[in-house]
Amino acid sequence: MISIDHLTKQFDTTVAVKNLSLDIQPGEVFGLIGPDGAGKTTTLRVISTAMNPTTGRVSVSGIDTGRDPEAVKQIIGYMPQRFALYPDLTVIENLNFFADVFGSPRAQRAELTERLLRFAHLTEFQARLARNLSGGMQKKLALAATLMHRPRVLLLDEPTTGVDPVSRREFWDLLTEIHLEGVTIVITTPYLDEAERCTRVGLMYRGELIACDTPGKLRAEIGAVVLEAQSAQALAARRAMEASEGVLTVSTHGDLLRLLVDRAERQAALEAAWRAAGIDVQNVRVVKPRLEDAFVLLLTDDGRRRTEKENSVIGRPSSVEK
User: Is residue 266 pLDDT above 70, yes or no?
Assistant: First the structure.
């Protein structure tokens, strides 16, 4: 459905996206994950035809975004990070405006508008000004407006940032309904629990795609062992491990320590090192890796070097496994 071929986007001397190649299949929920400045938003904006690539080619449903952007706009819906609707218009006025912009047939508009209001749980708020909606309701209104022309591809740039957990869950319930209707969804998100909901996930770093697979495979192929432990001296325990042999990363979460080590046999040596330093650490155990662990490891120097080596052997990391 979306094909990105050696895309590079440069702003003056800054390369926002570097030689990105990626294929997204029809009906996927594809998540783009990465730190700030990784190039996620720029990638979505190029796909949406909001900007042209510096080099490379992007096509949506076989249509080149550079050659026929208007045709592409008819089949995509793009929801930017910031609320982009009109705050001084009501909910229903915003929906009608976007219906006009996209040329939605008037004969079908009333039925579609009513359906989207029900879908977004906004029926009782349709006369309310958009600026008076809560953050979560604004997000749902923006999604409804994006769907006014029945797009086959939905591009969502961090759509749940800044909303409460209940609103995030409700928003994803809406996305699930859209996905079940066969719409291809590309979403950027800073929340790795949301990335777990995607059929495939791509990790971007400094404009490059450094890993791409299903969440399950990314977790399973982490190439490290995850240890957890508890300690009232968690900070001291972490500092004692930061330079230890075989420890790839270590973090603290309250009194919880989480370590990525190169092999399970390291556990005994680590416990001995803590005892020698007079640090009380309890309940040391091997746990299942999370998607966060895979991404943290991939963002270390060793992880990036390993990924680059693997990609040079297997080729394009974004292809769906045959």
Answer: yes
